[in-house]
Amino acid sequence: MRVLLVHKFHKLTGGAEVFYFEVARVLKERGHQVAFFTTRDQENVVTGDKVYDVDAPTYDSGSVVHRVTGATDIFYSRKKFVAMKNAISEFKPDLVHAFAIHIHLTPSILEAVNDAGIPVVMSCNDYKHICPNYKIFDGSRICEACKGGKFYNAILKKCCKGSLVFSVASAVEAYIHEHKKVYDRLVNRYLFASDFMLNKTKEFWADKSVEYGVLKNPFDAYRYKPVFTGDYALYFGRIVEEKGVDLIIEAAKRVSVPVKIIGSGPGFEQLQEEVEKHALTHVELLGAMWGEDLDRVLYGARFVIVPSLWHENFPYVIFQAFAAGKPVIGSLRGGIPELVGEKRGLLFDPDDIDELASVMERLWHDVDGCKHMGKVAREYVLREFSDDVFYTALMSNYRAVLQ
Q1: Superfamily in which the 2-135+176-218+386-402 domain is placed by CATH
Q2: What local confidence, expressed as pLDDT, does residue 227 receive?
Q3: 221-384 homologous superfamily
Q4: Can you give the pLDDT at residue 74?
Q5: Ranges of each domain in the chain
Q6: Sheet-wide strand order for 120-123
Q7: 268/178 Cα distance (integer angstroms)
Q8: CA-CA distance, 37 to 105, in Å (whole number)?
Q9: Fewest C-beta in 10 Å: which of 20, 154, 371, 381?
Q10: What's the average model confidence in pLDDT over 367-394?
Q11: pLDDT tens, 167-203?
């Protein structure tokens, strides 16, 4: 089978890109031919496969009027439509697997695929298909104000990057796609890693007749060695508002559990100020870490905290924690409860700081229970997210549209 994988980024920026490259790896290892359609960037990963690339849009400079109305390339791009037709003509895919395409690639590329009569599956790793700002989170709380096609609320709330310009552009984009019936016409099957995102999409799209499937992320847990003991609690990831890292700082004011925080982002300095202001000597901010340096700190943790405020889909940090034999304290948001369950960690309401402090203290003092949860978590990720399990689910979804 020849599969064309389509994503706006061809470099590692987060979990969505990891998933995109993992799909390619699993397909290639099982004898399928893969090519990529993406945007140009000097940091793009070299995989040795054919890459069809196009220019990314330039919507972030110039006057407000130009950025919103002049940058039509972010809504529909004739150039990218033609580029996709040429890619299809040369590569001749049996199927197109799309990931994130909005703004950078636009649904125009799916129009080209549709014209060629090639089936499309789309993996949704965020909520862009139902929410102009990707997150159904307005910057401070869960928000579903745009449900029912009321995309003007994105402008009223300025919830897209906190910018009126981006919010107007995102709302206009959503209205255009709704008018053109992009989601009804151009995708044969939508794929979701979590039941939560699948059900939330069905809730928003009650009036749409579309096909759905489940495709959970593959993960190579064997890359990690399990260490079922540790000397501190750990957070690792981006330091941005929706990740809820400040909840850990607030909880640390109530309990003396030692905590290490790995990551960088716009909220880092504020965290640093809080730690210093309240003399939280048991909290250590380590900044950004990657690769072996990150793994070393992960192995030394007793458990990992994932305190997200928004409805995360399937955070890769949980897979990494489980593979390393670490249970997870996770928030009751999105797909997190599906992963953590009742035996692989503890859950808490992110609106209740006292509850987070309580579960941190409880898991910290239950050393034997922590080890047991870590072992169960390790076995779970090995069993449920292996390449073979993933490949079976992937091909089942592919066959559903190819037939």
Answers
A1: Glycogen Phosphorylase B; (3.40.50.2000)
A2: 97
A3: Glycogen Phosphorylase B; (3.40.50.2000)
A4: 74
A5: 2-135+176-218+386-402, 221-384
A6: 50-54, 33-39, 2-6, 95-98, 120-123, 189-192, 212-214
A7: 37
A8: 9
A9: 371
A10: 96
A11: 998 999 999 999 989 999 999 999 999 999 999 999 9
Q: What is the mean pLDDT of residues 35-64?
A: 86
pLDDT in tens, 261-296: 999 999 999 999 999 999 999 999 999 998 999 999
Report the pLDDT value the prediction gives residue 65, as an integer from 0 to 100. 52
pTM assigned to the model: 0.90
Calpha distance 377→57 (Å, rounded): 42
CA dist list (Å): 136 to 127, 140, 201, 310: 7, 11, 11, 7
- Cβ atoms of residues 298 and 321 within 8 Å: yes
Q: How confident is the model at residue 62 (pLDDT cuts 50, 70, 90)?
A: low
Put residue 148 in one of left, alpha, beta given phi > 0 → left and psi -120 to 50 → alpha: left
What tens digit of pLDDT does each residue of 91-105 get?
A: 999 999 999 999 899
Q: Give me 74's structure tokens.
A: 């972010």
Please list, residue by residue across 329-345, b when 16 or more beta carbons sit within 10 angstroms of its beta carbon and e when fewer do. Answer: bbbbbbbbbbbbeeebb
pLDDT at position 342: 86
Phi, psi for residue 345 in degrees, rounded to 5: 155, -160
**Which residue in the block uniquely carries the two structure tokens 């449900």?**
147
